[in-house]
Specification:
By secondary structure, the protein is α/β, with parallel strands linked by helices. Helix content is about 55%, strand content about 15%.
Length: about 600
């Protein structure tokens, strides 16, 4: 033992930490083969490369190793060569049995002993390694500054990362190596263009001789087309292509002439100061009417009425189009599916909140990315998969899931910087997973500016404003989201955000009402159950809260408030502590 008079041997070193991605699965399926391959890699790749760059292997850690270097450039070059040589050595092996290293690295002062090193640098390198992309190298900004401009590298800025058990964020950069998959779902990206459903909006037939109906019809048509055009998963045929067609012909025939999958037609009638509109959505292939509705208003507020009807039409027909497309996708043979079909099936399974179906959802979403690597919604929903994996308590590594969620959401925005869904999910990742609320609101405003009629952007942004304590804004945004998608079969998700907003405003009765409805639609959604429990406790309805707590434990027997606490997204410490205490008061284990 060291006496207080003794000084520790310290030195500034670059520290490199590595382990094998998916090692447990590989050992389960091919134990001896995996062990032999890893032993071979230690002898033929890792040890020779570390020695070449004048590093020292401090220790092997089962499926990984810890090494240190006196030179920062040598450390990063070594890491890149280990990844390059490992990848080359595994090319002829079955993809499911290829060994890939995750590598994290940093530079700092460390304590040196004969057979080990200690210090914050070791912990940081280890935490970076845990979330690094397999085949790549994740390094701290301190190390990046030392090597930037001295090595020809391709890097991406991961921003400030809150690492596990770390009090302050670590700014990190991901360095890709040739052949590295930048995103966990991608295996063989293709360049096939995604087929999207196409809708043609025809001028609504008008009755009367005053000309008001014609004027209203043109304005309404433009409003509907404008709102539909902002939805990136539905193609809308422009007004110039439909305005000259005679809408007395059968809608299915009109659609076939334009190559549309769906046709929206309508009739406008006037009685005194009132205007009434009838709309119908027709499936061109079958000729069947998927949806029809009657709406109306007062002529004196003609522009407001146009906006209101256009909003309702778009919010109602978009879910119907997706439902019809999903029904077709389910009936298709797998080899005939494209990215849009695969995405729809993934979304359907994703929202069931069933653990077995949830695993299947990931495969569909990964296949959608694989089929068309340029298709932003596939990346966005793959990001949402990781968000739900954490929120539902299924994640074995929430830190890793959080950064994979961010990678995928960022990839979606990289492919389409004006995609509202992608921007909104980026915002949700920032606030819900990283508690970076200012950055989140910036993404949400971009999303809404790109698509003012995007229900998701409004609903997800509601959550962030609730976390920040701005209940009034949160309620307004959640209600706007619900109004923009009144027929959405996943309405429980919107309702849960409205319940969260009411909880933030201490309107606990309203919160209970919303969350009861949300849980009624999907009893497996655990975020809704948690807010419902806290709201009931706040109202003093302890017996009801205990009943919901038992339902949560039936869904998630391993739930512990202390484990959930770091994920709890309330900005204000007092609000967060009160929320957690209410969960305990309802009988949830600490």
């Amino acid at each position: 033992m060291l006496s207080t008079a003794q000084t520790l041997d310290r030195s500034v070193l670059a520290v490199l930490c590595a382990d094998v991605a998916d090692y447990s699965r590989m050992m389960d399926t091919a134990e001896e083969e995996t062990h032999k391959q890893l032993t071979w890699l230690w002898a033929t790749v890792v040890i020779p490369v570390v020695e070449k760059y004048k590093g020292r292997i401090v220790k092997f850690t089962g499926d990984g190793f810890l090494a240190c270097f006196s030179d920062a450039v040598a450390a990063v070059n070594c890491a890149l060569k280990v990844q390059e040589f490992t990848r080359q050595s595994q090319l002829k092996r079955d993809p499911e049995r290829r060994i890939q290293f995750r590598i994290g690295a940093t530079i700092d002062s460390v304590i040196i002993e004969d057979n080990d090193i200690f210090g914050i640098a070791v912990n940081t390198a280890s935490r970076l390694q845990q979330i690094a992309t397999p085949g790549a190298v994740l390094i701290s900004s301190d190390l990046f500054t030392k090597v930037n401009g001295k090595i020809n590298i391709s890097s991406s800025d991961w921003g400030r990362i809150r690492l596990k058990n770390s009090h302050s964020p670590t700014h990190a950069f991901l360095i890709n190596t040739p052949g590295t998959d930048s995103f966990p779902f991608i295996t063989k990206p293709h360049r096939k263009r995604t087929r999207l459903p196409t809708i043609a909006v025809f001028p609504f037939s008008a009755f009367g001789s005053s000309g008001v109906e014609d004027y209203f019809s043109q304005g309404l048509m433009d409003g509907i087309i404008g709102a539909l055009s902002s939805l990136r998963d539905i193609m809308t045929i422009n007004r110039g292509s439909t305005v000259d067609y005679c809408t007395k012909e059968p809608p299915a025939l009109l659609g076939k002439r334009l190559g549309a999958h769906y046709v929206l037609t309508g009739v406008i009638g006037r009685s005194g100061n009132e205007i009434r509109v009838t709309c119908s959505l027709t499936d061109v292939k079958s000729g069947s009417v998927l949806w029809s509705d009657h709406m109306g208003g007062i002529l004196s507020s003609i522009f407001d009425m146009q906006d209101s009807i256009a909003t309702k039409v778009v919010g109602t027909i978009a879910p119907h189009v997706r439902e019809a497309e999903l029904a077709r996708a389910v009936m298709k043979r797998p080899e005939n599916m494209d990215a849009y079909d695969l995405l729809l099936q993934g979304i359907d399974l994703l929202y069931r909140m069933d653990s077995e179906q949830f695993v299947r959802a990931r495969k569909f979403l990964g296949s959608a990315i694989e089929t068309d690597s340029r298709y932003p919604p596939a990346y966005a929903y793959a990001s949402l998969w990781h968000i739900f994996n954490i929120g539902q308590g299924w994640s074995a590594d929430p830190t890793l899931d959080a950064y994979q969620a961010w990678q995928l959401a960022s990839a979606a925005v990289d492919r389409d910087a004006s995609n509202s869904l992608a921007l909104a999910i980026c915002g949700h990742v920032k606030s819900f997973l990283f508690h970076e609320y200012a950055a989140a609101t910036s993404y949400f405003e971009r999303a809404i500016n790109c698509s003012p009629s995007h229900a998701w952007a409004w609903a997800l942004s509601s959550g962030t404003y609730a976390y920040m304590g701005d209940a009034k804004e949160a309620v307004e945004r959640a209600e706007r989201g619900i109004a923009l998608s009144p027929a959405d079969r996943h309405a429980f998700y919107y309702l849960s955000f409205l319940g969260l907003a009411h909880y933030a405003g201490e309107s606990y009765e309203a919160a209970v009402d919303c969350d009861r409805k949300a849980v009624g639609q999907n009893p497996h959604f655990r975020a809704g159950l948690r807010v419902l429990i806290a709201s009931l406790v706040a109202l003093g309805r302890l017996e009801e809260a205990q009943g919901v707590a038992r339902a949560l434990l039936a869904e998630q027997p391993s739930f512990r408030v202390s484990v959930y606490a770091p994920q709890c997204p309330w900005w204000d410490n007092e609000v967060r502590e009160t929320f957690l205490r209410r969960l305990v008061d309802a009988g949830l284990p600490e």
